[in-house]
Amino acid sequence: MDGNGVSGAARHAAFAPLDDGGRAEVVARRLSEAIALGLLGDGEQLPSEAELAAQLNVATVTLREALSALRSDGLVQTRRGRGGGSFARSPADASLERLRRTLRELTVHELREIGDQHRAIAGTAALLAAERAASEDLRTLDTLVDQLAGAGEPGDRRRADGRFHIELAAAGQSSRLTRQEIALQAEIGELLWMPSGEAVPHPDAVAEHREILAAVRLGDGQRARVATERHIGRGIDQLIDFHLRLARA
Amino acid sequence: MVSDVRAEEMSAAAREVGTALDEVFAWLAELAGRFAAMHASSVAEQNQLRAADLSQLRASIFPRLTGNPRLLAGTGVIVADDVLADQPHWLEWWQHAQGGTELEFLEVDHDPASVGFYDYESAAWFVVPRDTGDRVVVGPYVDYSGTDEYMLTLAHPVSHDARFLGVAAADIRADAFEALLLRAIGAVGQPAVLANEAGRVIASNTPSKIAGSLVHEAEFAGSPVRVVLNQDAEVRDCAGLPWRIAALRG
């Protein structure tokens, strides 16, 4: 969809009322996801602050804080004067349109199937890693969590995230699980780290990797498995939510 | 006494493991020698080696691979930075094609800017020989950037006039290596394992402690027996050892 031709339904999906606390962070994430998903086209004017705050069901001051964060991320531009207002800026990333299309064309069923398989593979890999990882494997995993923490670009985050899960399967000493983890990362890695539309917010992803690794280090396979399943499930749930928002548009 | 018999069988198994490693290292010493000799004559002729020149090594690589189809998954040389005139980053590596009898050249991504870059300069089998001059045994490990198999990698440094040129290396399928040793370890007569330096089990005669799992000193019954490499052939040390054979507590 082009910048000016966003449907009323897309607008509705982008500005659906928030029921999760109305924090500025949540508002900013919702709007940046809408931009990533193309629900808000490049150059499209946002409603007035009062109108938008009312639609999202948040205080105007909260909305202003969110818009300010989006401005500093380059996702919103504000122009003064006649014809002024706030405008969405789509991240300049050639892969974004392709990712939106993939996300729109996948079905909820397919996403659920990918999630089921990924939880089975990554969860068992974590369980085995807790039993079999040697100190050298733990050092590699530590490095990969730090790499994710320090990564700023979506591509670097995706690579560090993917490598962590692949290395976890390798630390479980299973070639088969490792191969399947590699295939799954190739299938959904990019979708999980869409520019300005991350399925699991970066700081949470880092914290969850640390939690998994702590359980692996303790040799607590069940905890490692449960933490991994939760982590993977959360990402897939978010992708399903993205898909539904696109499907409604 | 029963324990004496066990010690004897364990020593015999350790000798067999050592022989298996010695055979691979003897090949790697030969391959390293050929590569070093090629480099030496290129220096003498003032004509720096090119990637295509390494194809001369195939005459010895091919028969070695086809002669050991079960055990030897792949072998070749991995070249240090800027040794070749035309390729800063290169390997001449051949392996058995998946599920076939053909040999295939390992094509990897040599572009450091690419996502799939094959970064051998961070692999232990390259770094250890480069930094220490020692040979090394790595694994078993899941080789997800190369063959996708459970592997042991053995590597031998190649150098000429104190310049590090790269490594001659071989990938050994961990499952085939274990199968080769099952009889010897089985002969120990009670649950026993062959484990690497980190305590990773390489081969075992018991389902309670299988290859890939970790074993701790506290689980050993009596003293383990170290695997010793043939001292006459090569004075170079080998990192990643000692491997040990140990009987397990019931």
Shape of chain A: elongated
First-last Cα distance of chain A: 10 Å
CATH architecture annotation name of the largest domain in chain B: 2-Layer Sandwich
CATH class of the largest domain in chain A: Mainly Alpha
Q: Determine the fraction of residues in helical runs of chain A and give it as a percent range.
A: 55-70%
Sketch the major β-sheet of chain B: 7 strands, mixed
| Unreliable stretches covering 5 or more consecutive residues of chain A | 1-5
Order of helices and strands of chain A: HHHHEEHHHHHEEHH
CATH topology of the largest domain in chain B: Beta-Lactamase
Overall description:
- The complex is a heterodimer of chains A (about 250) and B (about 250).
- Chain A has about 250 residues and is mainly α.
- Chain A folds into two domains: about 10-90, Winged helix-like DNA-binding domain superfamily/Winged helix DNA-binding domain (Arc Repressor Mutant, subunit A, Orthogonal Bundle), CATH 1.10.10.10; about 95-250, GntR ligand-binding domain-like (Four Helix Bundle (Hemerythrin (Met), subunit A), Up-down Bundle), CATH 1.20.120.
- Helices cover about 70% and strands about 5% of the residues of chain A.
- Mean pLDDT of chain A is about 90; it is low at about 1-5.
- With about 250 residues, chain B is an alpha+beta fold.
- Chain B is built from four helices and eleven strands, in the order ααβββαβββαβββββ.
- Chain B has helices at about 1-45, 60-65, 125-130, 175-185; strands at about 70-80, 90-95, 105, 135-140, 150-160, 165-175, 190-195, 200-205, 225, 240, 245.
- A seven-stranded mixed sheet of chain B has the order 3-2-1-6-5-4-10, with helices on both faces. In chain B, strands 8-7-11-9 form a four-stranded antiparallel sheet.
- The interface of A and B includes residues 134, 169 and 182 of A.
